[in-house]
Amino acid sequence: MSFLIALILIVLIQWFHLRLLRLELPERAYRRLPWILGVLHLPLILFALMRAIGIDGHGALPLLRALARAGFYFQAFTALHLIIAMLVEVAWQIFHRVVPEEKGPDIDTDADEEVPVDPGRRAFLRTAAIASTGAAAALSVGGSRQAYGDPEITRRAFFFNDLPAGLDGLRIAHLSDLHAGPLVSPGTLRRWRDLTERERPELLLLTGDLVDSRPDELEPLLEAFQGFLPPLGRFAILGNHDYFDDPRPIWRDLELAGIRCLENASSLIPRNGATLALMGLQDPMARNGRFRRMIFGPGPRPDEAARDLPADAFRICMNHRPSEWEHALAAGARLTLSGHTHGGQINPIPGFSSARLIGPRTEGLYREGDDVLYVSRGLGVVGLPIRIGAAPEIVILTLKRG
Asked: Spelled out in words, what is the top-level CATH class assigned to the domain 152-401?
């Protein structure tokens, strides 16, 4: 089913793109274009089909994987090209509402006669479409560099009056949305690990979407983080993408690798005579994984996550979706760490995060009284291999008393 949906989307996007390119290209070149697009997308379709039937192709067919990646990049270019063209069309409509066109002499026409195309509009859109090709190409290249360049390292200190003295100065590495899979290579995962390890955190927290869609994609992530052993441990929760397939292999492999998976559960972490209560909430996708009737859990249960915790323990909650912050607050979390939004990932309009389309908490710091939520932009990508106005992020948090 997922393969069929992806195929339909590819065909629809390219159909719209062909209509746009008709404005830009001479007729002779345009006639060849459907065949060229078909050849370009064939490796991407074959790769998606192999993944849908359970064949990875990472080691066996590296050339196919490389060609499929080129198809992904062309999809990114196409999407940006269409967005820019749409904005140009809107600008034309607004301009011609404000500045009405001069009316020529009345001409009698039959009702059945086809209305002629406005030559001024067509010329404007043709020029804008050609210009948007360069703009889309530049955004695709820049977006790829931002997505796969070194992530920003956000270092923040959070002050709590009730923080136990023994937890003062605790350094936590918060990584989210790594999306190990076809768009994130093992080399990229190793670089993220190296940059995080240099910060010398005492605790490593992974807040979901560890893989893009399949459990076997976790292996390169675990290999990349092998040997990275913060003194207070490594913990994880699953995100919605981790539930696109049966998550039980992910739970198993995390535990075997020494990464404790907290799904509606908690762990008590002692430090300098104080106790940190680390909680994790399960993602709502557990109730309906892979968009089918596959039940792998009840979703977020704050009562279960906070069960039997000492009253004097300082509570931190890992909660993949910031929209579910209320559940973390119900569990008594003073600090909640989330991801999911990617900071919008592709933000073509300066100052506006595309993540606002799914909720008001898009990235960064939020407060509810004395309680704090931090939403990471995450590290990986989904759908398209680019980021625009939403650089990948490694978050290093330091707890402070006061």
From this structure: alpha beta
User: What φ, ψ does residue 260 adopt, rounded to 5°?
Assistant: -75, 125
Cα pseudo-dihedral 154, 159, 160, 165, rounded to 10: 100
3-state secondary structure at position 295:
coil
pLDDT digits (tens, 9 = 90+) for 137-187: 787 788 889 999 999 999 999 999 999 999 999 999 999 999 999 889 999
E strand spans, 180-248: 203-207, 234-237
Q: What is the pLDDT of residues 52-64, one digit of tens each?
A: 666 654 544 667 7
Q: Classify the C-alpha dihedral 342-348-349-354 as positive or negative.
A: negative
H or E element at residue 268 = strand 265-271
- pLDDT tens per residue, range 324-335: 999 999 999 999
DSSP state of 397: E
Tokens of 130: 């050609």
Q: Which residues pair with 375 in a beta bridge?
A: 338, 364
Two structure tokens written together for 168: 């003062």
- Write down the domain spans for the chain: 2-98+119-146, 152-401
**CA-CA distances (angstroms) from residue 110 to 103, 113, 361?**
19, 5, 56
Q: Which two tokens stand for residue 41?
A: 């997308």
Among the listed residues 307, 241, 256, 297, the one whose alpha carbon sits nearest the alpha carbon of residue 277: 307
pTM: 0.77
